[in-house]
Amino acid sequence: MPVYPDVGAWDELGLIGVIAFLLVKEGASWFRAKEAAEDQLVATLVADLRATQKDLLEKLFELHNRQHEDLTAVRSELEGIREQLETMARDR
Q: What pTM does this model have?
């Protein structure tokens, strides 16, 4: 008399296989979503850093221009003082 395998055991193995497949599929989906979220976060951070860098460079350029204007004004004042001193020295 032949011994047939227990069909219920095969059904259980099949069900376990399906569950395992669905778990792996869901895990892969979650991992892809996590990767996409991380990529988006990195892109946002890079954009923010570039904007901050641009703002800082603009402020640095403004400060440089202001410093140049201040130095020009100081030179002008020093030139005026030099002329006054030369005039005072001649008048002596």
A: 0.56
Q: Which two tokens stand for residue 88?
A: 């005072």
CB atoms within 10 A of CB 18: 10
3-state SS, residue 37: helix
Burial 44-77 (b: 16+ CB within 10 A, else e): eeeeeeeeeeeeeeeeeeeeeeeeeeeeeeeeee
DSSP label of 3: P
pLDDT digits (tens, 9 = 90+) for 7-50: 666 677 788 889 999 999 999 999 999 999 999 999 999 999 99
